[in-house]
Amino acid sequence: MDTTSRFPGSNPLAAAQRETAGAQTFEKYEYQYHWALCRILGAHENYNDYAVFIELHEDVVLATSTDESVARFEFNQVKNVSAKPWSQKKLTSVPKASAKEVKNSILGKMIQGVRHKPFVDKLNSLDLVATCGFDLPPKKDGLKLSIISIGDLHDNCLKDIQAAIDKELGAYPLPKALRFITPDLPASGFQDVAIGRISKLVDIKAPGAKCNASTIYRVLIDDLHRKGTVAFDFIEWENLVKNKGTTRSDVERVISSYTESKGIEIFSQDLEDIFTDLELKSNKRIQVRRAFERYHNSIRLERTLIAIENQKAVKDAVQRNIQLFEEHGAKDFIEKALLSMPEAIRKNFFDLESAQAAIIYELLSKCYEK
Fold first, then answer.
1. How far is residue 174 from each of residues 21, 105, 125, 129, measured CA to CA in Å?
2. What is d(CA 163, CA 290) in angstroms, rounded to the nearest whole number?
3. What are residue 125's DSSP bridge partners?
4. Which of 22, 85, 198, 344 could make an S-S bridge to 213, C-beta 3.0–4.6 Å?
5. Residue (of 237, 285, 258, 231) closest to 69 by Cα position
6. Residue 56: strand pairing partners
7. Where does residue 262 fall: left (phi above 0), alpha (psi -120 to 50 degrees), or beta otherwise?
8. Residue ranges of the domains in the chain?
9. Do 80 and 131 touch, CB atoms closer than 8 A?
10. Could you tell me the pLDDT band of residue 320, with boundaries at 50, 70 and 90?
11. Do the Cβ atoms of 133 and 85 come closer than 8 Å?
12. Are β-strands 73-79 and 245-247 bridged in parallel, bridged antiparallel, or unpaired?
């Protein structure tokens, strides 16, 4: 064949490639990372605390808390495969082993990764996630489930799987936490889907807010890539979370950095009304307005631990005294809310105006939530 013959078009490299597996392999791994990102977004919507790890015992591991004493775990093996739905035979077929390597079946490898491990009793679920789906007969005819637990399988199917695992690994009961999941993240175009889910999450958490979803996506996926390549083990849980985990506070910090909540300008007229209620002179109005802007920036952009603690205490004070505002107006409310805050929190504010501004900000935010 004459490989020097010219092809129509402007690309001088428009010839059949010797190797295309690299791009396909990259896409398979990228799918795992994007599935992890979407799992993080789901956890962020529903949980107050979590940590997600990439390439730690399994492809994706979710901890239900950053407190190791109460954390439970969700192990996920994630496969982006173009094939017919996996059957019981596919799941339990053991590839031929080489002289150097003993191989396991798909399911055997998963179970091998958790059996006799110290964390096995802390598993909420052991999930096999595959884009091709599963062809496993259900206990109830006609059911088509996206999440199949052990209890959903037909008794004969369950017996066959158990017998195959016993033959492969020795007598070992199938984990009750085992599940088979057909994901809702498509096998291609998953990048755009992830960006869309970021926009949806922001809209749920802060309706009407403007966010740069593409930038949030890039920052989060880059962080997952970086942490996924960390191959070291960590004795201390705190070090594991710091170096290999993605937590709620990590995600919140990124989202806050590239999201503008409604805009501080939405409070302008209400702020003036409260100033009038407080009978503040112009110099005090300027000081409180500047403190109001500083507080807005601290909770939207900085999100330090102190800022988070301050905001929680201020919100609690506002909630406890909101009826006073509704019955008597801003002046009595702000005085009472200020006194009801812990002294340690009051000391975190630079001056009286800063504390007043924080209370006014959270009051107006609460009013706009209604």
1. 34, 14, 12, 17
2. 71
3. 74
4. 198
5. 237
6. 58
7. left
8. 21-193, 262-368
9. yes
10. very high
11. yes
12. unpaired
What element of type H or E holds 252?
helix 248-257
Contacts of 68 (CB under 8 A, 6+ apart): 237
CA angle at 230 for the pair 227 and 235, rounded to the nearest 5° = 110
* Cα–Cα dist 165/176, whole Å: 14
Look over the chain and give the mean of its residue pLDDT values, rounded to a whole number: 89
Count of C-beta atoms within a 10 Å radius of residue 284: 15
Counting beta carbons within 10 angstroms of the beta carbon of residue 148, is it exposed (0 to 12), middle (13 to 18) or buried (19 or more)? Answer: buried
Sign, CA torsion 323/370/263/192: positive
Structural element, H or E, at residue 158 = helix 155-169
Q: What angle do CA 56, 57, 62 make, to 5 degrees?
A: 65
Q: What is the DSSP string of 22-34?
A: HHHHHHHHHHHHH
- Distance (Å, whole) CA 183 – CA 96: 29
How many Å apart are CA 125 and CA 179, to the nearest integer?
Answer: 7
End-to-end CA distance of the chain: 74
Q: What is the mean pLDDT of residues 110-126?
A: 94
pLDDT at 48: 81
Whole-number Å distance between alpha carbons of 246 and 146: 26
- Gyration radius of the chain over CA positions: 27
State the Cα–Cα distance between residues 152 and 120, nearest whole angstrom.
22
H-helix or E-strand containing 21? helix 21-46
- Name the token pair of 200: 């949806």
Q: Give dist(CA 253, CA 247) in Å, integer.
A: 10
Q: Of the ranges 262-271, 285-294, 311-320, which one carries the lowest mean pLDDT score? A: 262-271
Distance, in Å, from the CA atom of 201 to the CA atom of 273, rounded to the nearest integer, reads 33
Answer for the pair 234, 240: CB distance below 8 angstroms, yes or no: yes
Q: Give this prediction's pTM.
A: 0.71
Residue type, 118: P
